Batch of 3 targets.
Target 1
Amino acid sequence: MRLGSPLRQTWDSPEGWVATLRDRGLRAAYWPLPDDADGDTVDAYARAAHEADVVIAEVGAWHANPISPDDATRAAGIERCRAQLALADRIGARCCVNVAGSRGDTWDAPHPGNLSADTFALIVDSVREILDAVRPARAYYTLEPLPYTLPDSPDSYLELLRAIDRERFAVHLDPVNFINTPAKYYAGSALLRECFAKLGPHIKSVHAKDIALEPRLTVHLEEKRPGLGTLDFRVLLTEMERLDRDTPILVEHLTTEAEYAAAVAHVRAVAAELALPV
């Protein structure tokens, strides 16, 4: 597996970007350029990553809502996902990732319609529309699960894989986002094993974070930095070791360099305990 982390800075050259990754011992990376980067710059950064044996883990299509009830918003969401998937394919990224979208007012909002059969059908249609327009040869299009949108479980992700029925549709795994009840929280290790048993062959990238159930009514499941919650990273890394050796595991959603360094250190420490290379 390959470990990656956001880098909270910008670069004047691809060489500087690669040097920073090397200094931190990171062999996977988030795509570092803004959406409006010119083609020559895009190609230079992609080439530098390839020459340095750095896997570009994912290109985000965040903030796009391809299942919005508003026609203009939906069309814009589809177009953004197409553009980001085309970028991911151009640079040889493992995947392009977005959430499925929401029937609410914003792209990732909870909504009573998000889990319906009609919304499932909309997700199938939108993903097919994105993939059939781009026809990627290298990258995959993936959906990150959320606690209140589909896919919200390993089984619902499997159902989407079967229904969408496109070779270049795959899995972006964020197991903490599947934990949306106390029952799942307390059975976290079993849930991790279920994720890999059912979705393993399709997983292209993994987000690493932690979770804690707070003692406040009614239910408060709080995202935490790796090592500060109860997710068993020994199980997570053991299961990941069975995947493609280039599969990225990426820390995320922290605010300071020190927090990111601590998250990376925790993943490394668990891997060292298990004698697993990262």
Note: The mean pLDDT is 97.
Target 2
Amino acid sequence: MATPGMRPLTETELTRRGPGRLRMSAYHAADVARWMIRVTPATSVLLPVSVRRGLLRLGGCQIGAQVTGLKRCGFETKQVSIGDGCFVNVGCWFEGAGRVDIGRDVFLGPQVMIITSVHQIDQVGQVARMPSPSQVVIGDRCWLGARALVMPGVKIGEGTIVGAGAVVTKDCEPGAVYVGVPARRVR
């Protein structure tokens, strides 16, 4: 919501000024949050986890009360919902085209990437310039190992384990174990 007679700050203005030099009104709080998420990480290891959660919420993400970790993570979008009791390890990445819904008590290993868009290819082989977004859903009590990659449109069932380095290209059944590239069920 804009204050009459004031315009939002551009990314360049935010970068030049930095958060310490902004006049702090309710209107500018959203600008500061945007700057913190996009320019300097709101997930800096120098900030306590409660501040990291607060900055991400201020930026528009839905972060549960007991979410821990969130160190040096990348959020390209505010369309992220992380349930209570989750642990988001160092360097996780949430791509910004589609929505990401993560259930309760989910553990994400280091550098897990969640991708939410693809570039469609037409009949002549031309790649679309604009991405097509797809929602990613991760059920309650899942565990994704280090550097697991979740592709657009995937639904991971409740209680599923995804091994380190796996590339999840299709939906995963609840309570199963998936490993490999592409991820396949082993249990």
Note: DSSP finds three helices and 19 strands in the chain.
Target 3
Amino acid sequence: MDAFARRMEDALVARVGAARYQLWFHRHAAFVPAGRELVVGVASAHFQEWLEQTFGEAVRSAAADALGAPTAVRFVVDPALFPSDDSASGGRKSPECDPPRGADAHRSPVAAKPQQLNLFGETPAPPPSPRSKRAKPIDGKPARRFKFLSDFVVGACNRVAHASALSVVEDPGQGANPLVIHGPVGTGKTHLLEGIYAGLRRRWPEARPCFVAAEEFVTRFVQSTRFGKTAAFRRQFRECSALLLDDLHNLATAAGSQKEFLHTFDALVADGRQVVVTMDCHPRLTEELMPELVDRLLGGAVWGLLPPDDETRLGILRQKSVGGPPVAEDVLKYLARNLRGNVRELEGAVNGVRHFARVTGRPVDQPLVREALGDLLRHTVRAVTVADVDAAVCTVLRLSAGTLQSKARSWAVSHPRMLAIYLARKHTAATYGEIAKHFGAKQHSTAVAAEKKVRGWLQKDERLALGDREWRAKDLADRVEREILR
């Protein structure tokens, strides 16, 4: 290491600390005086942007100390600087020692500035634009098409969650942070998350939001650990303007990934950047996530999505029927009354009716719908009430009607009551407060705790002595569900 490099290192260490110098500068940046300026060579445009934005002032101050006078600093991209460990500065020997490179080899970095030449008088290849990256397939797969919030059908079952998603797009990081959206399959969680991503890209062109599924987050973390690329992994997720994570519950079986996400979460929120996650249940009801992570999630806004009600189903069907053969309003209302499934089932019904009409050459009317969707309509689940669940549990376990609404606390009553609360949350649109009231509890937290308890039974496949026999928890739940759906 020459005298200048040593002075520059000492000056930078004094300003950013030894650990940060080793992480960001050692073997990642080459410092070369060039006339009246200091040229800082780095390996990539991404690294250039990060160093200049994060440590630009520290580098300028250190350069003034090392050179004995205020000096202009310019960052340039040159991957060829870092092919080996020949230089203690992390790069190759200085340009004065290089052989000539054609007619322009004698030009200094200062003279080459209008042409954006690198440290050695060469023109580096420009990095691909983010737009071109999105347009090209990755690993042979087409780029993902994100849905928009304007396409989301709003109803009583999802209005608050939709409004929260809009507020994130309008002012990211300034409202509820994190935003947690939870609900059953097919209720629109991923649509809202994709809509936030698309909205941020459209409203804030300079923003760099990151959309990732939890499974992909785990895969990338495992690969980065295996190949020693943890620093690059962390930069990818901790330098984004907003992190949007789909299906957070899939981190449950990966303790290491949970810890990494927790640290990433803390770094982003502390810096005022938005975090939005989706889950299949309320954070309080999952036992697999770290308590620290659950606590962080509860510090923001937690909104649930319910299966679509009649009015929302009709709106979804109207939207899905646009752009193809016309579907009469009375047919859409018939489908909305008779289908009780999620958004995907409704979309599949519209597609099935249209296909059947096309292959048979008949107009779309109610007789055609009944013929095309006969099996689906026959197996459609009727609207289930809390009282239906109560009656089904009593029937299976041979309990007298009203037993689950009594004040008894013995396990012979309390365990069936907890199972009924869990199944009521699963099969009805009732709130925790409504369920708790039906079973004689004063607070909705009783229903929350009961649901969490039964989830634990099912996950651990526990055995329960109830009624006149011993049951596996899963078998009992299945038997009661069959009774509910009869």
Note: The two ends are 81 Å apart (CA to CA).
